[in-house]
Write a structure and sequence with these properties.
The structure is a single chain. The protein is an all-alpha fold. The chain folds into two domains: about 90 residues, RNA polymerase sigma factor, region 2, helix turn helix motif (Rna Polymerase Sigma Factor, Chain: A), CATH 1.10.1740; about 70 residues, Arc Repressor Mutant, subunit A (Orthogonal Bundle), CATH 1.10.10. About 70% of the residues lie in helices and about 0% in strands. It has ten helices and no strands. α7 packs across α10. The two termini are about 30 Å apart.
């Protein structure tokens, strides 16, 4: 992503133009965020067709609801929140839903040191395989934190859950990743 695209003013200006039904602005918005939305959806759904359907539904919602963006979060966070709800709808239709209890006693581990050390390992394929073995709820927090670079509060907003739940899921994700890598002799 270039610096213009990372600038929050650019997506905001696109949303304003989209709310006036500017098709060029919608095209630019789509190009800017399609890979983000698709990557999040495919990680959760595992189906290209479902992920593409979610992408189309999300962009349709943006086209129809750009004027409702209130600016209380970054545009990307708002967009991933819409995506999350669409993904949940697909999962409900499939009859699949993962639940996890909230543990408020989990300390805030915003430090990504453990993942940085693991990522430094030269065998990314094995790390990717370990991440793919995680429960969906753990993969999604890993994806949002490390690939979308969202903070725990932003992840909580996207997923519609308390920050404590995000911390719990991340703790379990880190623990599962560490166990998997140890089993593969990579720790």
């Amino acid at each position: 992503m270039n610096s213009v695209q990372e600038n929050e003013e650019y997506p905001l200006s696109l949303l304003q133009a989209i709310s006036a039904h500017d098709q060029n602005a919608m095209r630019s918005f789509y190009e800017l965020f399609q890979s983000t939305v698709y990557a999040f959806a495919i990680k959760r759904l595992g189906s290209q067709a479902d992920a593409l359907d979610v992408l189309n539904e999300v962009m349709f919602d943006v086209w129809n609801g750009a004027g409702r963006f209130e600016g209380r979060s970054r545009v990307k966070t708002w967009l991933l929140g819409i995506t999350n709800f669409k993904v949940i709808d697909v999962l409900r239709k499939r009859g699949r839903n993962d639940h996890e209890e909230l543990d408020e006693e989990i300390p805030d581990e915003s430090n990504t040191g453990a993942f940085s050390e693991i990522a430094a390992n030269n065998d990314a394929g094995l790390i990717r395989r370990c991440i793919e073995k995680m429960k969906d709820i753990h993969r999604q927090v890993v994806h949002l934190a490390f690939f979308e670079e969202l903070s725990y509060p932003e992840i909580a907003e996207v997923l519609g859950c308390p920050a404590g739940t995000v911390k719990t899921r991340m703790m379990h994700a880190k623990s599962g990743l560490k166990a998997c890598l140890e089993a593969l002799g990579l720790s």
